[in-house]
Write a structure and sequence with these properties.
The complex is a heterodimer of chains A (about 575) and B (about 110).
Chain A lengths: L2 H8 L6 H28 L2 H9 L2 E6 L6 E2 L5 E13 L8 H11 L3 H9 L6 E7 L1 H10 L4 E10 L7 H4 L1 E2 L5 E3 H5 L1 H5 L3 E7 L5 E9 L7 E2 L4 H17 L4 E8 L5 E7 L18 H4 L9 H10 L8 E3 L4 E4 L2 E4 L6 E3 H6 L3 H9 L3 H10 L26 H8 L8 H12 L3 E2 L14 E2 L3 H14 L17 E11 L2 E14 L6 E8 L8 H4 L1 H14 L16 H7 L1
Parallel strand pairs in A: 2-10
Antiparallel strand pairs in A: 1-8, 2-3, 3-4, 3-5, 6-7, 8-9, 11-12, 11-21, 13-16, 14-15, 17-18, 19-20, 20-21
Chain B lengths: L4 H57 L2 H11 L34
The chains are: A alpha+beta (about 575), B mainly alpha (about 110).
């Protein structure tokens, strides 16, 4: 029997057939996956590879929009963008030897090592070397011709009017967006819209082909303000002189077109130079006329009196008992500067009697007085849309105690801004209508709201004209060749809830009386050089600004040129 | 293959090659023109820059503060005093001489 042969046959090593199959299947699976991925990347999801390929040579660049210019009402530029170049580098593309880096650092005024550090930081695509260079430096940088160093056009804002209108115009930041003032309020119209464009760049970064723009850039629009450069200059000059002469803390002047509510000038002192803001203090940047509130004092009296006349409670010649200058309400004493036993309502305004004003106010229902003040624009927005505009608050009349109703009539216990005060006086200058304030030039007049009747308004105008004549508190407000009218204010300041012997001197008036064109409001904070009365500190500013502005605007005279009668200084001092 | 199609093939091949070459040429021309366009745009930008700078320069020279300074200090000008001013109304007889002004009809 040959068992060995068959046994031998059985012992032949045979590899399990399944191993080869498994391997084969695995490799087939691997191939399928790769093929599938290839099909996926190439066919279905090809954007990924496409983008990577494009990134080698094409870029999407932003096309910046040119910021609009701000001009005054006559087209004089007030804020202009001029292009400046900023130097930037793409570190991975930079090819510069030691010499060139040193020269570049010299031109830019940078430390060589710091420059090297920035250029070697290849993790970034874009690094600024120096921003907003003057043109001669730019030329030198270009002359070096270093690949990878490029220029970017940026814009810098210049303000020709300098410090005269700085707080109103505001300023822009480094990214050319408005940060304060009108630059901020009008940001949308001024900025325009940047566009984007797809371009093809060569190895050195120069653009060789335009591969279609995605958006067109839209340049910003130019804006025409209501301001008049000449009147603005005049207001700032006289304000600066007065604040310095009376050693005051600060001051503000507002000039309004009496008929349209347009702001012809708005000056604040102290000021700053918007073209180099490095040394500007916070207090010099405040637009006090619009954003600061103060207790107005006697400049409020005309509104309580007008409300009383409108409701028929009194007439201009009604006699009021002014208690010889001392009047007690709720255990508080109200004092007069010039005590008298009796005064007419006209004299209450002319001689600025607190007792008289309090009595007139107390004769009204609190709700009626409140409405008269509210409709005159106190406690509400002026319509200027200036960022940070102060509205103040007119408390609910139901919460008024008699003493509060009395003090409000002569401007204490209420806070207003100079702009609100100026706006309120346009009522007397326009037959009883209150218009919204406009910082932009108006092509068409805007409808206002009728607050007082023409009869009441005319009565008030007569009283206010008496204020500026001898016998009134502001003969220094007179202007040669024009009739003027207005009201003084000398308000004690509040500190920690108590009234101190520091004052806000103010005068608000309008001219010419026969056909009012301008309202001018002046406020001087803490005059500390002996004189502090509104009639002595603020009225002369009014006189100079109003006279100059009426001349500049070519307003016809309504009085002979020698109409000004100025009593001797000691008589004036007695009157205020 | 059809007889004579060899000639057609050759012709089409030549045509394709010509098209390819012309694509390259057109592309090159387009890029050159584009670079020229960019140069002109740069020039236009420069003009805009100059315009802005000139406007700034003009407003600086004409600033009210500067005009006032030059008028009062250099040119020694002053506003007329009250006694030096005469009002002339249209369609009314001219006041007697003694006043220093030009008669509108004489064209002085």
């Amino acid at each position: 029997m040959n068992y060995a042969a068959s046994a031998h046959a059985d012992l032949t090593a045979i590899l399990p057939g399944w191993r080869a199959t498994v391997l084969f299947m695995l490799m087939l699976a691997g191939l399928t996956v790769l093929l599938g991925r290839g099909v996926y990347l190439q066919g279905i999801h090809d954007d990924f590879l496409q983008k990577k390929g494009d990134a080698r040579y094409s870029r999407v660049i932003e096309v910046s929009a040119h910021r609009g210019m701000i001009t005054d009402r006559n087209g004089e530029p007030l804020a202009v963008s001029t292009p400046v170049e900023s130097v930037w580098a793409s570190p991975s593309d930079v090819e510069a030897d030691r010499q060139q880096v040193k020269k570049l650092a010299q031109i830019l005024g940078m430390d060589t090592n710091e420059l090297k550090g920035r250029l070697l930081d290849t993790s970034r695509d874009f690094v600024y070397l120096k921003r907003q260079l003057p043109p001669d430096q730019v030329e030198k940088v270009v002359g070096l011709n270093i690949p990878g160093i490029m220029l970017q056009r940026e814009y810098r804002r210049y303000y020709p009017a300098g410090e005269e209108a700085a707080q109103t115009l505001g300023f822009t930041g480094q990214d050319d967006n408005g940060q304060e003032g009108l630059e901020l309020a009008l940001q949308e119209q001024l900025a325009g819209k940047p566009g984007s464009q797809r371009v093809i760049k060569d190895r050195r970064g120069h653009i060789v082909e335009d591969a279609g723009s995605l958006h067109l850039s839209k340049p910003g629009s130019d804006i025409v303000l209501s301001l008049d450069s000449n009147v603005q200059h005049l207001a700032y000059r006289e304000l600066e002189y007065a604040v310095k002469q009376h050693k005051a803390k600060s001051g503000a002047v507002v000039v309004l077109d009496a008929r349209s509510g347009e702001v012809l000038a708005l000056a604040n002192y102290p000021g700053y130079n918007p073209n180099s803001r490095n040394n500007a203090s916070n207090k010099s940047m405040r637009n006090r006329a619009i954003t600061d509130l103060f207790e107005p004092g006697s400049t409020m009296k005309p509104f309580a009196v007008a409300t009383a006349i409108e409701t028929g409670k009194v007439r201009p010649n009604t006699l009021i008992n002014t208690e010889n200058g001392v009047f007690t309400v709720n255990n508080r004493k109200i004092h007069d500067q010039h005590p008298a036993a009796m005064m007419t309502v006209s004299q209450i305004i002319q001689r600025s009697s607190n007792v008289g004003a309090a009595k007139v106010a107390l004769s009204l229902k609190s709700a009626v007085l409140w409405q008269g003040l509210s409709e005159s624009g106190f406690g509400v927005q002026t319509g200027s849309n200036f960022p940070g505009e102060a509205t103040g608050k007119l408390r609910d009349p139901k919460t008024w105690r008699p003493i509060e109703q009395a003090t409000i009539s002569y401007g204490h216990g209420i806070s207003v801004s100079l702009l609100q005060l100026a706006r309120a006086y346009t009522i007397f200058a326009s037959d009883g209508e209150l218009k919204p304030i406009s910082l932009l030039k108006l092509d068409e007049p805007v409808a206002g709201k009728k607050v007082f009747s023409e009869r009441t308004t005319r009565a008030l105008i007569n009283m206010l004209e008496l204020v500026t004549q001898p016998g009134g508190t502001a003969p220094l407000a007179q202007v040669s060749g024009y009739r003027v009218a207005g009201k003084t204010g000398t308000a004690h300041k509040l500190e920690d809830g108590r009234y101190v012997n520091r004052y806000v001197a103010s005068f608000v008036g309008f001219a010419p009386v026969s056909n009012p064109r301008l309202v001018v409001a002046v406020m001087i904070d803490e005059p500390s050089n002996d004189e502090y009365y509104g009639g002595l500190v603020a009225a002369p500013v009014f006189s100079k600004v109003t006279g100059g502005a009426l001349h500049a605007l070519n307003v016809p005279n309504d009085a002979p040129l020698d109409n000004v009668i100025v009593p001797p200084k000691d008589v004036i001092k007695e009157e205020v | 293959m059809l007889p004579g199609s060899n000639g057609l093939n050759a012709l089409l091949l030549v045509a394709v090659v010509m098209c390819a070459l012309s694509v390259v040429t057109s592309q090159h021309k387009a890029r050159k023109l584009y670079i020229e366009l960019q140069k002109e745009k740069e020039y236009a930008q420069q003009m805009e820059v100059e315009w802005g700078q000139l406007q700034l320069e003009q407003s600086t020279w004409a600033a009210p503060a500067r005009v006032e300074k030059v008028a009062t200090q250099q040119l020694r000008m002053q506003l007329p005093k009250n006694g030096q001013v005469r009002f002339v109304k249209l369609n009314q007889p001219v006041p007697r001489p003694g006043a220093a002004f030009a008669h509108p009809e004489n064209g002085k």
